[in-house]
Amino acid sequence: MRAILNEVPAPLRADLDRLCGVIAAHGPMAVAFSGGVDSGLLAYVAHRVLGDRMTCVVGVSASLAAGEERGAIAFLERHGIPHARVETREMDDPAYRANGPDRCYRCKHELFARIASSPHAARFPRIAYGANVDDLSDFRPGARAASERGVVAPLAEADFDKARIRETARALGLALWDKPAAPCLASRVPYFSAVTPENLRRIELAEGALDALGFASRRVRDHGALARVELPLAEHPRARSAAIWREIENRLRAAGYERVELAPDGLCSGRLNEALRAGEA
Questions:
Q1: Which of these CATH numbers, 1.10.569.10, 3.30.2130.10, 3.40.50.150, 3.40.50.620, describes 2-178?
Q2: How far apart are CA 45 and CA 169, in angstroms?
Q3: 185-280 has which CATH code?
């Protein structure tokens, strides 16, 4: 089980050994796999520790971009990690569509419920997900759903923060070690604006257009007719060049937006949560 420790530099071994121990103590598990670096590291290490006593479950819905689903499955297949898809139906929940601050709670509640009621539940009674210690200081309604369902977070239990996760994933040769955060498409819709299949599709097309133009880190905030594009500040000179900006506008209009603007303060992960806290101040 601990052979994996020899694959990372000595300074990382104690932390990785602790994570292996946490996973072993939980035993057979189904990992809720999103395709990001957090759940990627968890899935990889869990497979090395537990072998066929684990599986990954990818929740598929309108809020998951098709490219993210393909990338998630490709990662699992590349590393021989057993997996399955489950269809989640959070869009059937009127409260989810209403998009209040508890939207993430409702999404995770649906995901964990689907995993728990799937054929995998009998063989893998423990559900795990990729929360880490950095998540504990942010507004994370999904953590409440995890707590209610008894879902465990081995990375957080082993005291892994995002930096240590990326460092370990890189040392293990996982290609997603530097993958930008890619929260669900619904996170681009401001709170209290309805989440619909139409605006999720519009966001997916718009962000795909930015990907095609070489902007790997991006968000398209959906404000109805307005697309507010967030890019790292270092990318702004290129984005503002006449030819590229004209291409951005054309492609995002083709995706369904009437107006396009570039957020002057750059890419801000968790912007909706910041706005929520500002409203409470």
A1: 3.40.50.620
A2: 10
A3: 3.30.300
β-sheet with 126-128: strand ranges across: 83-87, 54-60, 29-32, 126-128
| pLDDT per residue as tens digits for the range 51-84 | 999 999 999 999 999 999 999 999 999 999 999 9
Q: Enumerate the domain spans of the chain.
A: 2-178, 185-280
The H-or-E segment that residue 228 falls in is: strand 226-230
Task: Tell me the C-alpha to C-alpha distance, in Å, between residue 10 and each of 14, 16, 53, 172, 183.
Answer: 8, 10, 28, 13, 32
Q: Which residues of 85-94 are buried (b: 16+ CB within 10 A; e: fewer)?
A: ebebebbeee
Record the tokens describing residue 192, joined without a space: 């209290």
Contact (CB, 8 A) for 230 and 187 = no
Instruction: Enter the pTM of the model.
Output: 0.91
pLDDT, tens only, 209-251: 999 999 989 999 999 999 999 999 999 999 999 999 999 999 9
